[in-house]
Design brief:
ASHA1/2-like_C, 2 domains, SRPBCC domain-containing protein, single chain, START-like_dom_sf, alpha+beta, about 25% helix
């Protein structure tokens, strides 16, 4: 058995004080991490939370150590699935005007009896996703907010994933955005993707993180006109680099919970909210057939 901890080292172009606040302030945590209601930043205090949009995976944590702007450490357990306990530690170090952040998740072998969903490989991929979420939160273009959606779907992650990114399936569930919506390009790590209307206008994006049947993050780059990528101009710079993510969690009841986050500016908030709400309902109906 591999008892070595998961260790991820991250580098951010943000001061330690900003990264520390993102890690320990519950209002900021809710933006990129988990929505934790019973949280107090004090050694010995316990806090609890579920996966976004679900109630299958209760997380139970107890704060072990708090050294402001240097270290935050707490236990990490799943009492519904295992009596085992792990330890999560965030260490921060200034690098000029930026921050080196080291995440150490130790004791994962204590959850072995809970199954593959609690394996070292699963946690490694999960923390990579949260690294992107934190990076996105710290780097998000000024003036943008994040729309969040959670949809419970009585279907498997594999079927939902296929419908989302298969060309025919994508054109169906995204009709509320545009009746002729289409997707082209490579849905893979580092792939370039075009999101298009029937007229050939739209947006080009890079696949920043890709874990099949679980997680994908698109980094939106620029506009497309007449099927051609356009240079990033001053207006495009206001949103270029924003992120759109999709995460699928098994809900423990034979179905799945789809969590979607998308950056959007105030002028498009209502339109995007309505279109995503209708599109995700269409995806749910397709997947449950």
């Amino acid at each position: 058995m591999d008892n070595a901890p998961v260790i991820l080292t991250m580098h951010f172009d943000a001061p330690v004080s900003k990264v520390w606040k993102a890690l320990t302030n519950k209002e900021q945590m809710k933006e990129w991490y988990f929505d934790v209601q019973d949280y107090e930043l004090e050694p010995g205090k316990e806090f609890h939370f579920y996966e976004p949009g679900g109630t299958s995976y209760l997380h139970q944590c107890r704060i072990l150590e708090v050294i402001p702007e240097k270290r935050f450490s707490h236990t990490w357990a799943y009492p519904k699935f295992s009596s085992g306990e792990t330890t999560l530690t965030w260490d921060l170090e200034a690098e000029g005007n930026g921050t080196k952040l080291t995440l150490t998740h130790a004791g994962i072998e204590n959850l072995a009896a809970a199954g593959e969903a609690f394996s070292k490989a699963s946690f490694t991929e999960g923390w990579k996703g949260f690294e992107l979420g934190l990076r996105h939160f710290l780097d998000r273009p000024e003036g943008l907010g994040t729309l969040k959606f959670n949809v419970n779907i009585n279907s498997t992650p594999e079927k939902i994933w296929s419908l989302m990114w298969d060309k025919a399936g994508y054109s169906q569930w995204t009709k509320p955005f545009n009746p002729g919506s289409s997707i082209s390009g490579k849905i893979e790590q580092g792939g370039r993707v075009h999101f298009l209307s029937a007229e050939g206008d739209g947006m080009y994006s890079d696949v920043d993180t890709y874990v099949p049947n679980f997680y994908i993050a698109f980094k939106h780059i620029g506009n497309i006109k007449d099927f051609k990528e356009q240079p990033v101009d001053e207006d495009t710079k206001k949103w270029s680099g924003c992120i759109e993510t999709y995460t699928l969690y098994p809900n423990g009841k034979g179905g799945s919970t789809l969590n979607v986050k998308v950056d959007v500016g105030p002028a498009h908030y209502d339109m995007m909210n309505e279109a995503f709400t209708k599109s995700l309902q269409a995806l749910k109906e397709m997947a449950e057939q």
